[in-house]
Write a structure and sequence with these properties.
Number of domains: 3
Strand order of the largest sheet: 1-2-3-4-5-12-6-11-10-9-8-7
CATH topology of the largest domain: Aminopeptidase
Radius of gyration: 23 Å
Number of strands: 17
Bound molecules: coenzyme A
Helix content: 25-40%
Number of helices: 12
Shape: globular
CATH superfamily of the largest domain: Gcn5-related N-acetyltransferase (GNAT)
CATH architecture of the largest domain: 3-Layer(aba) Sandwich
Distance between the termini: 33 Å
Order of helices and strands: EHHEEEHEEHEHHEEEHEHEHEEEEHHEH
Length: 417
């Protein structure tokens, strides 16, 4: 039977959504309400499906996103999601074909990078993606942590924590998030629907766990300005001897200042009945473990690659960010003939950069995936050289590149998409 790869129409969309759901191992079909809600929020021109005898057997979607890069600027990103191929049709090149179509269209639209969260590490490197931001998750045994619960209601610097409701989060959250995005590399934009979905104001997608109402808290600074937000769920668990054994799981914790961030962790670790705090996906260098008097009370439960990135336009991407030191570097980027291939002269400084094609001899030779892993400042050039994945063609080039590319704090993408 022939396979028809095409852009999905509104009439084929319910079957496409069923295929996504099944591809992510959720049986059944989404109901009409979900289909209508998703459809209203979907640019169908960016939805691809593969159909066989009228049935969708593979899916792929992208949407417009903004990604914060080092220095606080944002670049237009082609965010990829909903990637599935039915188990009956795997390893016949369907993902490769849909990816090629999408990346070519993204490049045509002028998008600077493509982003995704990978279900499995080995899938996307072949398409020029590299892991650009990692994540870590901890489980805190709050009674061992050593925080003083009497201080949780009186955050340092005169701030205060307030319990609020979902409507308040929809009111304060977008601006707070936009301000955070202007300072933290790796943050991706959130749509209005994102805020609705995460505060119960929109039906949730059935492939995810059923949504339950969480608790919401904000932090205000000494002037009363909202500078932090915490969303967490609890599980109402009690032990055999009738002792409270609740786990509070963070769904969102964003803050504009370290003081607000510390105050929100302190608050959560001090909620009565909560004996365990699960952090949710944080940056690997999150303040959390070290802000506890006993950091070993925070047991690492996840450490993983998270945001994968692919450069679609090397000069624009490298010119969008700032650098830790002045450096002039010639990068030979190998991309299997793809859009990032070429030799580029990067003149980098703390104020920005100029990046142009060049014929000069190269300082470093690297693949598109390696450049992506370095782009947000997370990976070390030295480490990639030692792994045999970057070639240092001029002595000292790795150290100069590290001084320019790397950042004091690691990038962080708090969202899954
Ligand atoms: C991941 C998935 C979309 C791949 O689709 P596919 O059509 O089988 O991929 P392709 O046939 O285009 O594969 C291209 C290459 O990638 C490799 N590849 C694909 N998926 C891989 C995986 N999970 N692990 C290792 N290699 C993988 C293939 O072996 C093939 O290699 P080759 O070119 O050397 O032969 C599919 O397996 C799937 O739907 N998995 C479950 C859902 C999922 O994980 N989706 C990704 C969400 S981020």
């Amino acid at each position: 039977m022939s396979l028809d790869i095409r852009t999905v129409t509104a009439s084929a969309y319910p079957d496409w959504l069923r295929a996504v759901q099944n591809g992510f191992l959720t049986a059944g079909s989404p109901d009409e309400e979900h289909v209508a809600e998703r459809l209203a929020d979907t640019d169908l021109s960016r939805v691809q499906g593969v159909f066989e005898a009228g049935r969708c057997v593979a899916t792929f979607r992208s949407f417009a996103q903004e990604l914060t890069v080092v220095g606080g600027a944002t670049v237009a990103s082609d965010a990829i999601t909903g990637v599935t191929v039915a188990p009956t049709h795997r390893r016949r090149g369907l993902l490769s074909r849909m990816m090629a179509t999408d990346l070519a269209a993204a490049r045509e639209r002028g998008e600077v990078v493509a982003t995704l969260i990978a279900a499995e590490y080995p899938i996307y490197g072949r398409y020029g993606f590299g892991p650009a931001a990692w994540t870590a998750e901890w489980e805190v045994s709050v009674h061992r942590a050593g925080l003083d619960p009497r201080r949780s209601g009186q955050p340092e610097g005169g701030g205060r924590v307030e319990l609020v409701d979902g409507a308040d989060v929809r009111k304060y959250g977008p601006e707070l998030h936009a301000r955070l995005a202007a300072r933290r590399p790796g943050i991706v934009s959130r749509s209005e629907r994102w805020w609705k979905l995460h505060t119960g104001a929109a039906a949730t997608y059935p492939a995810h766990d059923k949504w339950t109402e969480p608790f919401y808290a904000i932090h205000r600074d000494a002037d009363g300005e909202v500078d932090g937000l915490l969303v967490y769920g609890t599980d109402d668990r009690w032990g055999d001897a009738n002792q409270p054994l609740n786990t509070a799981t963070v769904r969102d914790l964003i803050a504009l200042t370290p003081a607000a961030e510390r105050a929100l962790w302190h608050f959560l670790c001090s909620v009565d009945w909560v004996t365990t705090v699960r952090s949710g996906y944080r940056a690997p260098d999150d303040l959390l473990p070290l802000l506890l008097p006993d950091p070993r009370a925070a047991r690492p439960v996840t450490y993983s690659d998270w945001l994968w990135l692919r450069l679609l336009d090397v000069p624009r991407a490298l010119e969008a960010r700032t650098y830790g030191s002045e450096a002039s570097l010639v990068l030979d980027v190998r991309d299997g003939g793809g859009v990032a291939e070429g030799r580029f002269l990067l003149d980098a400084s703390a104020a920005g950069a100029r990046c142009t094609p060049t014929t000069r001899s190269a300082d470093l030779a690297l693949g598109a995936g390696e450049l992506a892993a370095l782009y947000l400042g997370d990976e070390s050039v030295r480490r990639l050289v030692d792994l045999g994945r970057v070639e240092e063609l001029r002595s000292g080039a790795a150290a100069r590149a590290d001084a320019a590319f790397r950042t004091g704090r690691r990038p962080w993408c708090p969202d899954i998409f």
